[in-house]
């Protein structure tokens, strides 16, 4: 298993950060690993909703079939998915309001046989992507 996390204080209220985070049409503007949603984001953002995402990590393209696992508007969005080679992926966005600002934490995990072969490299690449994504998201809403 490889686990990664990153957080950033964004100079915008949680509602504004949440609106950007859940605007699936704009993911390409801030999410460093995102390339496309082949059928668009989830039709309705709710627990159990599913959607496919094309991503690129460590230079490799991958399609992940996501399911929304936990949803608490303006607080938590957790998704879990299955990628190529039996890799399971989890991403959790946690928003903590701080007056006119918000701390956004992203936690990710990768499990599966293929992960153990490249866990260190995957951890480094994913952590860099999370930090870049937070910087870009902050620039969009801050």
From TrEMBL:
<dbReference type="Pfam" id="PF10604">
    <property type="entry name" value="Polyketide_cyc2"/>
</dbReference>
<dbReference type="InterPro" id="IPR019587">
    <property type="entry name" value="Polyketide_cyclase/dehydratase"/>
</dbReference>
<dbReference type="InterPro" id="IPR023393">
    <property type="entry name" value="START-like_dom_sf"/>
</dbReference>
<protein>
    <submittedName>
        <fullName>Carbon monoxide dehydrogenase subunit G</fullName>
    </submittedName>
</protein>
């Amino acid at each position: 298993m490889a686990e990664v996390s990153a957080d950033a204080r964004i100079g915008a209220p949680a509602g504004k950060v949440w609106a950007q985070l859940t605007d699936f049409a704009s993911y390409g503007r801030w999410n460093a690993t995102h390339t496309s949603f082949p059928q668009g984001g989830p039709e309705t953002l709710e627990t159990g909703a599913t959607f496919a995402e094309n991503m690129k990590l460590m230079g490799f393209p991958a399609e992940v079939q996501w399911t929304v696992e936990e949803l608490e508007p303006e607080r938590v969005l957790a998704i879990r998915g299955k990628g190529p080679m039996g890799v399971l992926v989890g991403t959790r966005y946690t928003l903590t309001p701080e007056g006119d600002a918000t701390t956004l934490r992203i936690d990710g995990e990768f499990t599966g046989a293929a992960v153990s072969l490249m866990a260190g490299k995957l951890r480094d690449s994913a952590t860099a992507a999370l930090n870049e994504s937070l910087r870009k998201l902050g620039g969009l809403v801050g």
